[in-house]
Amino acid sequence: MNEHYFTCPYCWETISMLLDSSVFKQVYIEDCEICCNPIQVSVKFFNLELVDFQVDSIE
């Protein structure tokens, strides 16, 4: 598991998320731990290294 910090697209607070590097490509929705709005998270790993991380608001 890798901890990754990013900015919430709703409240602009910095939050952290644990990412599972054993799954090459992931897309899922998780609520912001500060404002509770849904965030779509897209993650890609290559050789267990994070190569792409994107968060988007759900509108």
Gist of the model:
The chain is built from no helices and five strands. By secondary structure, the chain is mainly β. It has one domain (2-57).
Care to describe what's here?
The chain has 59 residues and is mostly beta strands. It has one domain (2-57). 0% of the residues lie in helices and 63% in strands. The protein contains no helices and five strands. A hairpin with a 2-residue loop joins strand 4 (38-46) and strand 5 (49-57). The model has no long low-confidence stretch (mean pLDDT 94).
Could you report the average pLDDT, rounded to the nearest whole number? 94
Strand order of the largest sheet: 3-4-5
- Classify the beta-strand content into a percent band: over 45%
Distance between the termini: 29 Å
Radius of gyration: 11 Å
Topology:
Elements: E1 2-7, E2 14-19, E3 25-31, E4 38-46, E5 49-57
Task: Jot down its keywords.
single chain; 59 residues; mainly beta; elongated
